């Protein structure tokens, strides 16, 4: 069984520094305190980034194995928060955008489906508390 531990340290005001198991660090803060000078991440938005990163890593790896590489790939994740506290994402939309000259639609769909349904643990965690929808967009170059 794999265990991960992170350490999060209060840096004053509403700022926290956290690490990950590889010891890289980032700053988290309350986004309502951001006047445009903050460098860091709001915790809930970081969850959406984690979802995109997890699924994106799967998809890129699968496409490489399928020999269906793309020129550009981006993931846009939109989360809707509940109105009441504790506010959490109850609806999440994950849009996969692929660009290239020779896009192999069937392989791209298979890679995304495998990530969404089988490999991405963050996606599975989100499904425990949110309605998650996905969509694939192909952009010919």
Helical residue percent? 25-40%
* Strand percentage: 25-35%
Which structural class should the secondary elements be placed in?
A: alpha+beta
Please state the CA-atom Rg, rounded to the nearest Å: 17 Å
Q: What's the order of the H and E elements?
A: EEEHEEHHE
The CATH architecture of the largest domain can be given as 2-Layer Sandwich
Major β-sheet annotation: 3 strands, antiparallel
Number of beta-strand segments: 6
Spatial order of the strands in the main sheet? 1-2-3
CATH class of the largest domain: Alpha Beta
Q: What does it look like?
A:
Pfam families: OsmC. It comes from Polaribacter marinus. By secondary structure, the chain is α+β, with helices and mostly antiparallel strands. It has 2 domains: 1-41; 43-140, K homology (KH) domain (GMP Synthetase, Chain A, domain 3, 2-Layer Sandwich). It is built from 3 helices and 6 strands; from the N terminus they run βββαββααβ. The longest helix is centred in the middle third of the chain and has 23 residues, at 43-65. The mean pLDDT is 94.
Give the SSE layout.
Elements lengths: L7 E5 L2 E5 L5 E5 L13 H23 L6 E10 L7 E12 L4 H15 L1 H7 L3 E10 L1
Parallel strand pairs: 5-6
Antiparallel strand pairs: 1-2, 2-3, 4-5
Helix pairs in contact: 1-2, 1-3
Give structural attributes.
141 residues, alpha+beta, GMP Synthetase, Chain A, domain 3, three-stranded antiparallel β-sheet, three-stranded mixed β-sheet
